[in-house]
Amino acid sequence: MNDNFEILFNYVRLLVDIPKIDQDLCRKYFKPFSATKGEIIESSGKVPQYHNFIVSGFMRNFYSNELGQEIITDINDGPRFFTSYNHFMHRTPSNENLQCITDCELLRIKRDDVDITAKLGITQMEYTVQILQQQLEKNKQRIIDHATLSAEQRYVKLQKEYPSIIQNIPLKYIASYLGINPGSLSRIRNELVK
Amino acid sequence: MNDNFEILFNYVRLLVDIPKIDQDLCRKYFKPFSATKGEIIESSGKVPQYHNFIVSGFMRNFYSNELGQEIITDINDGPRFFTSYNHFMHRTPSNENLQCITDCELLRIKRDDVDITAKLGITQMEYTVQILQQQLEKNKQRIIDHATLSAEQRYVKLQKEYPSIIQNIPLKYIASYLGINPGSLSRIRNELVK
DNA sequence: TATATTTCTTCACAATTGTGAAGTAGTTTC
DNA sequence: GAAACTACTTCACAATTGTGAAGAAATATA
């Protein structure tokens, strides 16, 4: 009995119940994978090979713009799915890189196997709809935050909601994620201490 | 034969093919609805009653913050679905208002009927996944734009991608949507003319 | 452990955007 | 068509954030 799968199931159960048959399919087709700090598990320009579930560890999602700057679009820790989902599903090359910020434990499934579990299982489609809706709500909130909050307010909010990110992720990554210049964020952080 | 349904079907066909049976279900359960400029078709605090498809016209989605300011989260014209989808599906009160900025032609379906068409039809679930994915991509891009572009650049981009919004929507709505102070946007627009 | 590399902080200054008020223009309503 | 209302522009000034450089601190590598 692999603990990692229990973490996956508990995460899924936040949205839908998983019948035994779907659990077994997960155990059969999701493969454990250990990645080390700095490792890029999906690269820009390539079709994403896996749908990744972070069991533990921190990851980031970034792309390089015309000026060669890395733009970080997402930072997350487990438990959580973390995939360039659209490109993965449509088998199209992604412009994003998925990289481990710390050592990570993953469970991952190949693209073809997702079609198999969709056919043989029961709840996958329902879960997909649920998690897409959930993700959509989160993204809507991020848009609102950008449109209505100052840089300082966005940082404070992140600090409250995801203190583990502040504690574990380099400032320059957080700055890019929040759309703030690293120097400015350093100053903001310094002024907050007072 | 109602032209409005052809507009709906053509819009849906951008993502999935609609078999005859699903077309008939749409014709049976989607009802035409005309709304006039300024009309609020879903109100904050209430469970959204309809899933709305804009055939023609411009609508906005907004909520009121603690200070009583209207924050506009979305502006769109037809053809397009326009609903507080999460709250509609989960039958929970939404904090958002859907309002017509111009006279609008809609096709709308009641919540209970969505369950019926889901059961009797074929492609609804697949379409839902597709359009959620599409919406997710659009929202990701909006986040990136906020994080990487200046106020002026965001306005210019909107102008390029959705010139009809610039032409048809009051400046103060556009300002709120872009997260810019109306006075600032007026100045930005003025300086762009030179 | 020493060295090299990367990240973070700090600074002065610049650029952008926000604020609130006042006036102008435009629109709606009766 | 006049009055009332709403939206837009403009202004001076304030606040926030960006920029680029230089040094300090932290981390990785040999």
From TrEMBL, chains A, B:
The keyword Transport does not apply. Keywords: Kinase, Transferase. GO terms for molecular function: kinase activity. Signal peptide: none annotated. InterPro entries: cNMP-bd_dom, cNMP-bd_dom_sf, RmlC-like_jellyroll. Residues 35-114 form the Cyclic nucleotide-binding domain. SUPFAM superfamilies: cAMP-binding domain-like. It holds the Pfam family cNMP_binding. This is cAMP-binding domain of CRP or a regulatory subunit of cAMP-dependent protein kinases. It comes from Aquimarina amphilecti.
